[in-house]
């Protein structure tokens, strides 16, 4: 751990240090009291090493798949961490959002979608908002896709058929709603709408895929349209905000192109052709400065792009990372993610493969405190040290049964949440 200067220490530590130094200098404090204070300081230092964090949207606070949470338990006993609860949440692939002690997710029960709010610690259902929504899919993969987005006292969700809802987090009551097909003539992707709502200041943005409505920005409070622009059909990814040369921008991974847009009005900056099999561009773009990494499955591959406000060009392109249904994380100059069913590490600058392992199938992952949290496509959870040198497994355990468990794992406030096609489990990884 890096040493902190007095000015950098938490306020309580600084106050206690000042009290100790001042009073001991004048000889007014017994030695036993000094020892007690020092012990308390040690406790505060230990507490400051444990950092908890909410996970209010798809891929976390910054949509990067990385949490700042520290001090959680990555080493588990045989059988895995303690399971606090397990519950049915309906059929689907939606991950979870966690905010202010509550958890939000989606699933489908007998052709009705359910947006469900649970107590994050106990799993008790607080409310459930249900509406008619066909779940069965002639192309396979039934149920919901989208992860809820929580902001202030509102939660935003999208169904696979394009029903957008803004709900009250306290009650689940509808504040406002839109229908992508009816309101914008949006063309439903083959496997349904899959992008999660992005909140940017007073706006709620989403890829709709309609004529002059590729992307739409709504007033987050009442649903009024702020702007709509472009006519690309939607892919399966989620929007990513970024700053470029003083301009707030939006990365849009549409069906056939990767498109840069201005945040203020949706106007197009540039586009890069990216036509994949079945239009499955699902991975969230990884952005570092003016470099953007994109990846797709079906043997298509990946590329590192360099962008400006005027143009986009490829730095490198290869097939070393084919993200089919989930996204990479970028950690200290290296990408970690699933090349179809192989977990790989790539050098971000060159695209060179550093290592790979095939123990998890077509899985998903996130990162926190120098560790990967990995979830296999059949319900196996694992942790590993983040290192470009080799794959370094820490612990693993079978948590849920089934196949195609593609919803990424979530670490929030000392608990890991994992999902099968119908069940959600909560695991205790708080430092003891």
What does this structure look like?
Strands 1-27-28-29-30 form a five-stranded mixed β-sheet, with no helix packed on it. Strands 2-33-32-31 form a four-stranded antiparallel β-sheet, with no helix packed on it. The chain has a four-stranded antiparallel β-sheet with strand order 3-4-5-6, with no helix packed on it. The chain folds into two domains: 6-48; 66-428, Methylamine Dehydrogenase, Chain H (7 Propeller), CATH 2.130.10.10. It contains three helices and 33 strands. The longest helix has 18 residues, at 31-48. The two termini are 19 Å apart. It has helices spanning 11-25, 31-48, 180-184, and strands at 66-67, 82-88, 97-99, 102-109, 112-119, 125-132, 149-151, 154-158, 163-168, 174-179, 198-200, 203-210, 213-219, 225-229, 240-244, 247-253, 257-262, 268-273, 286-288, 291-296, 301-307, 312-318, 329-331, 334-339, 342-347, 353-357, 364-368, 371-375, 380-385, 392-398, 410-412, 415-419, 423-428. A hairpin with a 2-residue loop joins strand 11 and strand 12 (203-210). With 432 residues, it is mainly beta.
Continuous helix count:
3
E-strand count: 33
Average pLDDT: 92
Largest sheet: 5 strands, mixed
- Tell me the count of domains: 2
| CATH fold-level label of the largest domain | Methylamine Dehydrogenase, Chain H
Estimate percent helicity.
Answer: under 10%
Low-confidence stretches: 1-32, 34-48
User: What structural class do you assign from the helix and strand content?
Assistant: mainly beta
* CATH architecture verdict of the largest domain: 7 Propeller
Q: Widest sheet: strand order?
A: 1-27-28-29-30
Q: What is the terminal separation in angstroms?
A: 19 Å
Rg (CA only): 23 Å
The CATH superfamily title of the largest domain: YVTN repeat-like/Quinoprotein amine dehydrogenase
Overall outline: globular
**Portion in strands:** 35-45%
CATH class of the largest domain: Mainly Beta
């Amino acid at each position: 751990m890096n040493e902190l200067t007095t000015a950098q220490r938490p306020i309580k530590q600084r106050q206690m240090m000042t009290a100790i130094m001042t009073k001991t200098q004048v000889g007014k404090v017994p030695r036993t009291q000094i020892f007690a204070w020092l012990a308390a300081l040690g406790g505060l230092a230990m507490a400051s090493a444990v950092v908890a964090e909410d996970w209010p949207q798809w891929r976390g606070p910054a949509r990067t798949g990385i949490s700042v949470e520290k001090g959680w338990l990555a080493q588990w006993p045989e059988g895995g961490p303690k399971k606090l609860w397990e519950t049915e949440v309906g059929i689907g692939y939606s991950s979870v959002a966690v905010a202010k002690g509550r958890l939000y997710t989606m699933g489908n029960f007998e052709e009705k979608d359910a947006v469900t709010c649970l107590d994050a610690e106990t799993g008790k259902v607080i409310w459930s908002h249900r509406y008619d929504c066909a779940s069965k899919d002639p192309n396979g993969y039934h149920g919901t896709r989208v992860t809820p987005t929580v902001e202030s006292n509102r939660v935003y969700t999208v169904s696979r058929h394009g029903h957008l809802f803004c709900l009250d987090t306290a009650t689940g009551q509808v504040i406002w709603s839109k229908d992508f097909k009816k309101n914008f003539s949006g063309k439903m992707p083959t496997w349904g709408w899959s992008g999660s709502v992005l909140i940017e200041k007073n706006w709620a943005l989403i890829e709709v895929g309609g004529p002059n409505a590729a992307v739409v920005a709504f007033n987050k409070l009442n649903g009024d349209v702020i702007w709509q622009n472009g006519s690309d059909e939607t892919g399966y990814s989620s929007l990513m905000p970024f700053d470029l040369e003083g301009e707030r921008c939006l990365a849009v991974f549409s069906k056939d192109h990767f498109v840069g847009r201005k945040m203020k009005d949706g106007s197009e900056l540039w586009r890069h052709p990216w036509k994949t099999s079945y239009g499955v561009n699902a991975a969230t773009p990884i952005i570092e400065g003016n470099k953007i990494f994109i990846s797709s499955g079906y043997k298509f591959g990946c590329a590192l792009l360099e962008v400006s406000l005027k143009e986009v060009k490829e730095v490198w392109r290869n097939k070393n990372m084919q993200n089919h249904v989930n996204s990479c994380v970028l950690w200290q100059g290296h990408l970690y993610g699933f090349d179809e069913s192989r977990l790989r590490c790539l050098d971000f600058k060159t695209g060179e493969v550093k290592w790979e392992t095939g123990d998890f199938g077509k899985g998903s992952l996130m990162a926190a405190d120098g560790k990967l949290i990995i979830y296999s496509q059949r319900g196996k959870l694992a942790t590993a040290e983040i290192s470009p040198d080799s794959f370094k497994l820490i612990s693993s355990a079978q948590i849920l049964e089934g196949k195609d468990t593609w919803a990424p794992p979530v670490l929030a406030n000392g608990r890991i949440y994992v999902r099968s096609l119908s069940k959600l489990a909560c695991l205790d990884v708080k430092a003891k």
